[in-house]
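Inputs:
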Amino acid sequence: METPAIRLTGLRKSFGGVEAVAGVDLEIADGEFFSMLGPSGSGKTTVLRLIAGFELPTSGVVELAGADVTRRAPFERDVNTVFQDYALFPHMDVIDNVEYGLKIRKVGRRERRERAEAALAAVRLEGYSHRRPGQLSGGQRQRVALARALVNRPKVLLLDEPLGALDLKLREEMQLELKQIQRQVGITFVFVTHDQQEALTMSDRIAVFNAGRIEQVGTPAEVYDQPGSAFVAGFVGTANVLRDKVARAVLGEDGCFAIRPEKIALGGPAGSGPAGFGPAELGEAAPDDVTATGRVVEAVYAGATTRFVVRLDAGSPDSTAQLVALQQNLRTSSVDVQSYRDTPVTLRWRREHAIRLPD
Amino acid sequence: MRRARIITGLATAGLLALSACSSGSSGGGANPADGKPPKIDKLASLGAGEGQVNIVSWAGYVENGTNDPKVNWVTDFEKQTGCKVNSKVAGTSDEMVTLMKSGEYDLVSASGDASLRMIYGGVVAPVNTDLVPNYSDVRDFLKMKSWNSVDNVSYGIPHGWGANLLAYRTDKVSPAPTSWSVVFDNAAANAKHITAYDSPIYIADAAMYLMAHKPELGIKNPYALDDKQFNAAVDLLKAQNKNVGEYWSDYTKAVQALKSGNTVAGTAWQVIVNLAEADQAPVAAVLPSEGATGWSDTWMVAAKAKHPNCAYKWMDWIISPQTNAQAAEWFGEAPANPKACEFTSDKGHCDKYHAADAAYASKIWYWTTPTTRCLDGRTNVTCKDYAAWTQAWTGIKG
Amino acid sequence: MSLLSTDAGRSGSSGPARRLAAWLHRHPSARLSALLSAPVLWLGVAYLGSLAVLFLSAFWTVNSFTGEVVRQPTLDNFRTIVTDAVYRTVTLRSIGVAVAVTLVDAAIALPMAFFMAKVAAPRWRRLLVVAILTPLWASYLVKAYAWRVMLANGGPVDWLLGGDGNGPGYGLTATILVLSYLWLPYMILPIYAGLERLPDSLLDASADLGARAGRTFRSVVLPIVVPAVVAGSIFTFSLSLGDYIAVQIVGGKTQLIGNLVYANIGAANNLPFSAALATIPVLIMVVYLVAVRRSGALEEL
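Outputs:
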């Protein structure tokens, strides 16, 4: 097997008795766009800082391209970082910021300038060379930070929530742009984020962090469709979790199951519900499908989709099990939504979409 | 001038305002060029006390027990005369002059370098010595001197005197010096460890030295220097400056420098030497063959005194044998009243300070304010005045 | 102010206080001037006024014998200062001391402030700031005299340097040493404040881009804290330029401008000449501040 770009073995890090990273083993392949996803305080940023060398681990080993760099200083590691606050040097103009790393590596003046300008062009910032960071917008600063890191041609680029401070529109643009750049330069990106959407959109693989440990590593589809734990199911996207009596009543099985809201088809009994909400929406039932009935508690219009919160009849009256189902608004309009409340509905999904979770 | 304590510097701002405001009020001063102090009548007869008296003095001259409970000659005075004493300590002669000009004070203990300025400035009045019974006991060699009288008119009551001695470390300077040459012509032998008094008046020490060693300059009085004489003294001091470790104006600083050996030889007062010796430092003092400069302090009454009777009562009290003994011993100087020698707690005090030694006293050139009118009586030349001395002193220190 | 009161007076019958308050609400500039007029007046009279009097009196002279101030404008004082070589020497020496003290303080304060702001654990920071401030609570005189003892012949400094007379003794070196000690907190605190505002990520970024600690300090920390250093230098420079007490205690025979000013007030009773001398440091500081203004350090004060 090829040597991984990054290999972490038994990595632990405590800050004054608090264990921020509680044993992480991970391999990241060369050229991979790898995301570390988790809520704040889950240890993902600390792992990034351990890879960069800003922190030294309490125990464990960090290898870069097969070499043990655990005890090496940041400037001895062939990685570069894009910081959450960009960390641009405020007293230097844009070109000096980008050239900084090259200057330290004693790259000749002409080559330095050429590479810096090329890097700025790659992030679409030609003509901004002589501005100060303070004169740039958030998105522009972000791109300078990217250029400053990429110009050094590191083997690995570490990105610490680089899009966190941008507004949604800019953020979506940057997500695509980052992905493109990664494909162009072909180096390993390790991307820290707490935004599951972002991670799913951009990554080749995702590691989901929780309480200093990795809960699951996999491709976006694996993590999304086959969550390895209730935490992953809940943190990556939304999931309905059925357990115990409800699971038994609905699925006829013991255990704990997760179902994604968009996998659930929803339809009313013929003639009883509002328009566009009849048995036709349920489609043909396959032999192995699971069907349940319930009543709409809440319907929320969200543009492309409508979210239905349904109380299941199964297990009633002592159970208050609810399911969330997401429906494409093929015909539904925001005006109709209110009238769905309290209507009886039928829910249907394919049996394999109810994923058994470890207890 | 002596005891120029650092603290006073902190009050400079206040002083600044004071002198700026006060200068207009006493404009009736004499023109010094005509050589006559303004005509002010002395007190004709003593009346009843006014209930209080305001005094400007050197530290240690007016003690009411707050510094040391055993050192108190104010309480008894207040009891006996009914005059409440309000005292203000001045750090330098010039501060004294400034304070007296404010018109708030009745009485001042002035050194010779302040007294004439106040006499000619019309700040102080002549003193009727007949109204001070103890005056008759005062040593004759302190009466009617150039710093406390003008044209045979007495302007004050002598308090005490002392000499600026040559102090030296017995372990570093041998043989024991008998001449000021150890700090002038031979100073290089103790380069960087010579000390000198930090005041323009110290130019007189150099002049006195030249008086003995360069008779061709014709110096008759170290406070009366014409251009040539003055320049010679200044040159001598500039040469001395190369070997000076530090100048002192705060006597505690001089004590410490002698004890540590930073100072090996230089000008000091008897009290400095005593304090250093008390700490077992190998220090001795000598009155060199050339003589010495010194001070002689005089109690003077303000021309516009609001409480003249109490002021006269104080002057008589402070030179009474017991009080004069206490004050002289507390400060460390020779008392003006020889009868005081019987009352000092250290019976050797008067001997140590050479109080009765007329020969010793005659070698002392007491501090006097230099004026353009030569103090030695010459009329064919003008002498350098104190302002010129001050400017020169800055140049000497470089 | 007069505008304000007439308006209030006209409002008369229905609650003048209320009318005044409403009027003030509509006129923020009047509100501001009402608020600031007292302090500005104080500043103007007490500060600028005294400076003006100082400058004015520099043109007077003193009757050398009686000590009376002669209020006839003349340039004599300034002529003396310009023509007499000793004043030039002393001025240059004073500037030299002020520069040296500033450099020594900057050299010590930079690593210390860096440690306080970036290396020490946050809970230690406050303690360290207090520790830096503690010497300021002790009397200036006590500290200066303590140094006099330390620098004495055979004193602790000599002993540390291996024998009597090995230390600097009293003199120019001792003056610079003691002034540096006295004013160090005034340099550390602005630099500390400046460094505290410097994000840690800048240091990480520099290391990340290949810079060792020294390079990071030179290329990132130093340029960013320069305004803070300049702000601190305003303190150390002006305080050193005006000092005369420490010099008197440990300076040996050294004299600085402050000593001349003091001697002319105290010993010579020549206030006008002192005033003329005092304009030298004022002028130097004005030049310095104008130069400093360009660096943006005044915003750090």
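Remarks. The longest helix of chain A spans residues 168-185. The radius of gyration of chain A is 25 Å.
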